[in-house]
């Protein structure tokens, strides 16, 4: 209950939409008035299979709520995400299921859904908290050093910039603390505004399969993956939309997976072989945080097998050069 006496609502918030996960209902589950439809949830390594209703999946208390100064809860992001989820569900049901291509407005909604799906997860929230926490710690150390410094040293540090001065030239310590506490609320607008225009210059396709297990999805449903990154030094392997070989994938249902690339050959509906489904499932499971879901209790061992390092990987090329004395 809030300070004003109002009951809190929307505290249990889905960081992977319930409406999205419903596509993975087990189709073989017996019809029952006492049992809700369920998906199969697995730990990241494929262990601990259990039945879960989508309503009970991937939630966290107030992950998107903004805490106002008066103690009230601002739910603008929770409601905004809900509207976007409804639009995505309608596109999936009226277009993708019927193999009809969405119009331009629907594509824009779809791209917004993909962009937010990548950023709004617990794993992404925790990653940015760690990053901003490191900045905050360094700034606090600098502030402490400033406060304990002699007048001469303070003057020298001020010429370099006081980390908590409130200067318009950069972030203050308080700014960084807010970003560390609420990275999704503080950053998602900027991220979406920068990502969607790039998506709009890329090509969109839907990969289709009749495999009974099909595509799985996870607590990090949107994956950015560059299949050529293994050729680079490890420090340069973080996937980015500027790479011509980047692949952004989001399973739509067990039978369909969205892919966004710079490759003009990937457009429209494309039937894919089992090996492509297997590769994407390996990729999505490797990218998940703690768990993934499927429409089936069955898994394939190959999903969890470590991938051998290719002969043209940067490490092997470097090793050969060192061995040959180049």
Give me the secondary-structure topology:
Layout: E1 12-14, H1 18-21, E2 39-43, E3 50-52, E4 59-61, E5 66-67, E6 73-74, H2 76-94, H3 104-119, H4 122-147, H5 151-160, H6 173-181, H7 183-200, E7 203-208, E8 217-218, E9 223-225, E10 247-253, E11 256-261, E12 268-271, H8 274-287, E13 291-294, H9 314-324
Parallel strand pairs: 7-12
Antiparallel strand pairs: 1-4, 2-3, 2-13, 5-6, 7-11, 8-13, 9-10, 10-11
Provide a descriptive summary of the structure in words:
The protein is of the alpha+beta class and 326 residues long. It has one domain (12-120, 202-324). It has helices spanning 18-21, 76-94, 104-119, 122-147, 151-160, 173-181, 183-200, 274-287, 314-324; strands spanning 12-14, 39-43, 50-52, 59-61, 66-67, 73-74, 203-208, 217-218, 223-225, 247-253, 256-261, 268-271, 291-294. A 5-stranded mixed beta sheet has the order 9-10-11-7-12, with helices on one face. A hairpin with a 5-residue loop joins strand 5 and strand 6 (73-74). Helix 2 (76-94) crosses helix 3, helix 4 packs antiparallel against helix 6 (173-181) and helix 6 (173-181) packs across helix 7 (183-200).
């Amino acid at each position: 209950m809030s300070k004003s006496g109002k009951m809190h609502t929307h505290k249990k918030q889905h960081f992977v939409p319930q409406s999205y996960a419903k596509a993975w209902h087990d189709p073989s589950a017996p019809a029952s008035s006492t049992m809700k439809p369920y998906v199969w949830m697995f730990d990241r390594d494929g262990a601990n299979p259990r039945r879960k209703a989508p309503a009970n999946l991937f939630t966290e208390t107030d992950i998107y709520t903004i805490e106002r100064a008066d103690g009230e809860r601002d739910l603008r992001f929770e409601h905004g995400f809900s509207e976007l989820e409804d639009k995505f569900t309608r596109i999936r049901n009226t277009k993708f299921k019927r193999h009809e291509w969405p119009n331009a407005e629907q594509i824009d909604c779809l791209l917004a859904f993909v962009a937010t799906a990548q950023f709004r997860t617990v794993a992404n929230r925790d990653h940015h908290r760690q990053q901003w926490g490191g900045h905050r710690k360094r700034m606090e150390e600098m502030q402490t050093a400033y406060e304990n410094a002699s007048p001469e040293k303070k003057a020298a540090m001020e010429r370099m910039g006081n980390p908590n001065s409130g200067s318009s030239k950069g972030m203050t310590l308080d700014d960084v603390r807010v970003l560390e506490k609420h990275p999704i609320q503080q950053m998602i607008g900027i991220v979406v505004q920068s990502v969607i225009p790039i998506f709009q210059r890329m090509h969109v396709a839907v990969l289709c399969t009749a495999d009974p297990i099909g595509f799985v999805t996870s607590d990090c449903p949107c994956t950015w993956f560059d299949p050529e990154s293994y050729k680079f030094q490890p420090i340069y392997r973080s996937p980015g939309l500027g790479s011509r070989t980047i692949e952004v994938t989001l399973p739509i249902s067990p039978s369909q997976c969205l892919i966004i690339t710079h490759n003009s050959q990937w457009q429209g509906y494309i039937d894919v072989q089992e090996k492509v489904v297997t590769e994407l499932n390996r990729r999505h499971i490797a990218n998940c945080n703690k768990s993934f879901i499927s429409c089936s209790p069955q898994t394939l061992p190959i999903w969890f097998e470590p991938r051998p390092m290719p002969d043209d990987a940067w490490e092997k090329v470097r090793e050969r050069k060192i061995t040959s004395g180049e």
